[in-house]
């Protein structure tokens, strides 16, 4: 076996043939020999808890002729990493002959003992070079990993294929496929927004797992839930602790609808824990995507101009505009389904009453149902479901302090369906009767 990589054990630091890239100073650096597998040197990749981050080491090598490449490296979690972060290590092989990575191996998070990741990658006949890449992908987590003894070689005909396996810890994937991963986000505030983990949340997770048969179900949290139903759900989840962001590109973030970016990093299926076209935008309570999709990159980059003065401006209206901006290409890359696929019954008083009162099947032609948790949170203790669904709730600003700003920005008239139910006081609807009654029909999220 001839190793095609220079400086495979990082004895010459993180240079010596390797190119390195990350967002902050010191996020890739040599590690002391005392922690190296070889006893000589290794590389340390560290992520910031305050951002989405991709840190990488890459090395491009010329090839005399195409072959079946084998790429391997020893990895382990660095000392001091807090629990199981929302991060993963990846090996990837690229070539100038192809736009996307040819092969990729994803390791959800290694233990603190050294293990070897091995990736097999047949190259196209036109390939005259190959780039080996070691990547740390992290979503707002304090994650750090050590890498040592990287190797890249042309496997012989008699050499058994690794098949992208690493003892079940990781899996090879296609860049164009939607990974069979479920992502749930909960507990970004210490009081859980006044809605602690309960029976409905447990059932939503169980139903999604039954329908999607995922390889893994990731549960991202800043504050871990507790209670009977959490203990029932917990064994089926891969827990990932995150730091809830307070800003994005230097702009303050106050609402949880703007605090989820795991799909850009890992791909898969994101679902709200209470789970499209309309007059306002597209809902994002259920999204399926390959990893690092161009649409999600463009959406994320647009947050450089972020403002939450309009509650749904960046999470609902903006993606609708992005999908419509390039009509020649958007249909093939972004598919927006009809409202009824995920959002029927709607969230107005009639829809909520249908959801909790009707004995008819409401899901005909749909893929999921949205329980509209912001409108009504029911637990087994509520008992009188019909009464709770029918109204009788106090008049006020259910959506909190942001209501005044949204009202000042004109949302009471532009988005009456939400504002009349969630910001009645700021819209001047308290004390005057039934402005938020059952007559308003809003065909949007």
Automatic annotation (TrEMBL):
One Pfam family cited in the UniProt record for this chain: ShK
Domain of life of the native organism: Eukaryota
Domain (ShKT) ranges: 395-430
PROSITE patterns: SHKT (PS51670)
Matching SMART domains: ShKT
InterPro entries in alphabetical order: ShKT_dom (IPR003582)
Entry protein name: ShKT domain-containing protein
Organism expressing this protein natively: Emiliania huxleyi (strain CCMP1516)
